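Title: Prediction job returns without error message
Component: structure pipeline
Severity: low
Priority: P3
Assignee: unassigned

Description:
Job completed but the reporter wants confirmation the result is attached to the right record. Sequence as submitted:
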Amino acid sequence: MGDFVALNLGGHVGDDPHAVESNRTLVADAFGLGRDRLLFMNQRHGSNVVVVDGPWQGEPPEADALVTTSTDCALAVLVADCTPVLLVDQIAGVAAAVHAGRPGLMSGIVGRALDAMTDLGARSISAVVGPSVCGRCYEVPAAMRAEAARISPAAFAVSWQGTPAIDVAAGVVEQLRVRSVAVQWIAGCSRESEELFSYRRRHRTGRCAGVVRLLDPHQEHDAHTELDAHTEEEHQTRGQV
């Protein structure tokens, strides 16, 4: 409870490991999978993309994007201010989960994930972009904002105090739309909302997760994505494609 009041899925933030595994099992169950088939990555704010087709053998790899064509696993991205991006091509049967913080925006992690999906046959990709810290709450030095804006002009922002800021999610959405990806952007600022974990609001805190799973062709929908977020009383599921 306390800092990890509801459905914390982060295993590296000081929560009871047994509680975290219990929470992850609940999410896996919601997706109709065994716990070992809900795949998390060792996120590093980098640009490494890993293609996966089943449970990890040993520790999760260092990566900020997972891509799969398997219907027998779900991909998860942990966030507490960064932007979670869930990608799917329903026709080709390719899905990805992407961790896009400021470093990921700058290093092109979204484009690298799209490239990996394209290499696997994806041609018509849709995205769900989850809540993250908004531009008004992400104050940065002017030089850092200028660097981000050179890469994604939409990332240029001004904070509540009128100082330089970066809107990572706006930059991510711009990168997706440049690649002709259909985007559903879930509104909300993690720092402003008590329903979301936020490292910027409270350094000792849990992690929400964006989760995507491809379904078998005989099932009602070709793909299913959910963004799992905590509330004070219970977890919510957000963003369905």
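Comment from assignee: result matches the submitted record. DSSP finds five helices and 13 strands in the chain.
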